[in-house]
Write a structure and sequence with these properties.
By secondary structure, the protein is α/β, with parallel strands linked by helices. It has two domains: 6-268, TIM Barrel (Alpha-Beta Barrel); 275-369, no CATH class. Helices cover 41% and strands 20% of the residues. The chain has 15 helices and 17 strands. It has helices spanning 47-52, 62-67, 71-76, 80-84, 96-101, 128-138, 156-177, 195-206, 224-234, 252-259, 270-276, 308-311, 315-324, 327-354, 357-370; strands spanning 6-13, 16-23, 26-30, 32-34, 36-37, 58-61, 90-93, 104-108, 113-116, 123-126, 142-144, 184-189, 212-215, 244-246, 265-267, 279-282, 285-288. The chain has a nine-stranded parallel beta sheet. A hairpin with a 2-residue loop joins β16 and β17. α7 packs parallel to α8 (195-206), α8 (195-206) packs across α9 (224-234) and α11 packs antiparallel against α14. It starts with 5 loop residues before the first strand and ends in a 6-residue tail after the last helix.
Length: 376
């Protein structure tokens, strides 16, 4: 395995891309979905399960880990890989999104953001340099610049201000990151729902010659069609020979439509959160196990799945667990959901390699629309 960070584009089909990121701790097949390990755990899952489902990389969250148990403590215990028992690559976000969405009494300046913890009210300061320092203490393989992520809709002046601040913070983050063999820092394209601002941000970041580029500030309240239009504008402005990461997205439909527009990497809490709330993602579409129609349905979620949670447990049993509030219900549905997400990504990779991505996209969407409700 190479000691350097590299990205190789292996095949294209339209705008869809099949590639591979190589790092000392392993390779990441793209398009890739990164399960979210917010606080050093993918909720309701063992790390061995996550790996077995086909995940090459997981995400850790700087904001949550800096609050508990603390980045310095994680470093003393051998870093996040050792701490969480995950041997493969880890991407850490910068903490900026959580500061903007979770923290209270925050004050934003050119230097950074001062905020109080949503846990205990303790005061913290997060700057581009401190974010990179924390991510270094966690020993993640891909680190993200600190940026300002604003909610949509917003005025153009506000989007431009936040985008320009994020560019200045990108330069400071890159300087703080320096040259770390085998690791990468990604810049983040901002600009809200303004296509000109998105292109301006992408061009400025491209000039910094970073190892990867992310698209931030989407899936923050805007309709899907707005997000997709921004991807159609932004992806062509990004370097072809670097990975493209759409942050915080999304539903299975979001994933397949974003891959069609040139995105390589994704993360989202949706499959794990939905599982804990009784919702299953399958090749038949979404199945809400809270609904009474499943109470006497002996069928599994998907008899063709390789995942035991999808294949071996009846919908009636899953409905029972969910209605009773049993922890096992959330565990099984999370397992199913992550299995489906990884299966969807594998299907897209294979379709791109075979030059039949458009057919795969149409067939997948047809399966969701057809559904699978038994006539009981």
């Amino acid at each position: 395995m190479t000691a350097e960070f590299s990205f190789k584009l292996l095949a294209t089909d339209g705008m869809a891309r099949r590639g591979e990121i190589t790092m000392p701790r392993g390779s990441v097949r793209t398009p890739a979905f990164m399960p979210v390990g917010t606080a050093g755990t993918v909720k309701a899952m063992y790390m061995d399960q996550v790996k077995e489902l086909g995940a090459d990389i997981i995400l850790g969250n700087t904001y949550h880990l800096m609050l508990r148990p603390g980045a310095e403590r994680v470093a003393k215990l051998g870093g996040l890989h050792e701490f969480a028992r995950w041997e493969g690559p880890i991407l850490t976000d910068s903490g900026g999104f959580q500061v903007m969405s979770l923290a209270s009494l925050r004050k934003l300046t050119e230097e950074g953001v001062t905020f109080t913890s949503h846990i205990d009210g303790q005061k913290f300061f997060l700057s581009p340099e401190r974010s990179i320092e924390i991510q270094g203490l966690l020993d993640s393989d891909i680190q993200m610049q600190l940026d300002e992520c604003i909610a949509l809709p917003a005025s153009r002046d506000e989007m431009k201000r936040a985008m320009e601040l994020s560019l200045r913070w990108a330069e400071r983050s890159a300087a703080a990151f320096g040259d770390q063999p085998g690791k990468a820092m990604f810049g983040i394209v901002q600009g809200g729902d303004d296509p000109d601002l998105r292109v301006e941000s992408a061009n400025a970041l491209k000039a910094m010659n970073l190892k990867g580029y992310a698209i931030g500030g989407l899936a923050v309240g805007e309709p899907q069609d707005v997000m997709l239009r921004m991807l159609e504008t932004t992806c062509p402005a990004m370097p072809e020979d670097r990975p493209r990461y759409l942050m915080g997205v999304g539903t299975p439909d979001d994933l397949i439509e974003s891959v069609a527009r040139g995105v390589d990497m994704f993360d989202c809490v949706m499959p794990t959160r939905a599982g804990r709330h009784g919702l299953a993602y399958t090749r038949h579409g979404k199945i809400n196990l809270r609904n009474a129609r499943h109470a006497e349905d002996p069928r599994p979620l998907d008899e063709t799945s390789d995942c035991p949670a999808a294949r071996d447990y009846s919908r009636a049993y899953l409905h029972h667990l969910v209605k009773c509030g049993e922890a096992l219900g959330g565990m099984l549905l999370t397992w199913n959901n992550l299995a489906y997400y990884q299966s969807l990504m594998a299907g897209m990779r294979g379709a791109i390699e075979a030059g039949r991505f458009a057919d795969f996209r149409a067939e997948t969407r047809e399966g969701w629309a057809r559904g699978d409700i038994a006539a009981l």
